[in-house]
Amino acid sequence: MWCSDWGDSHGFDFFDFEDYKDHYKVLELNCDASDDEIRSSFIRLALKWHPDKFKEEDSATSRFQEINEAYQVLSDPIARQEYDKKRMRRIYEHNTELLNEYKELILTCNGLGVKHYLW
């Protein structure tokens, strides 16, 4: 499945995990969502957060813009594939950083109690 295809890293500008916007979470979807699911979720959320319903709140406008941005990326097959590659690469790198940072604790908590490194 292309959702988990990390591909190569040439030409990608990887984003910081803190600044990263998960378009799937914005649209309340799984990463293997179909085009119809993406479209129906976008319509449902766009109607729910439309700025005309919340004229006094700026948060509704920013939420609506996030929903719009997520739909623009996920509705285009090429942009979605590139986004998924970046997303999977960043998640992999983040998890590797965490494993390296806490590897002694993980080994101890697993009951191994040894300082033999696996990597």
UniProtKB/TrEMBL annotation:
Which Gene Ontology cellular component terms are annotated?
cytoplasm; nucleus
Q: Which domain of life is it from?
A: Eukaryota
SUPFAM superfamilies in UniProt: Chaperone J-domain
Q: Name one Pfam family in it.
A: DnaJ
Which positions make up the signal peptide? none
Report the residue ranges that make up the J domain in this protein.
Answer: 22-87
- Tell me the PANTHER family matching this sequence: CHAPERONE DNAJ-DOMAIN SUPERFAMILY PROTEIN
Q: What is this protein called?
A: Chaperone DnaJ-domain superfamily protein
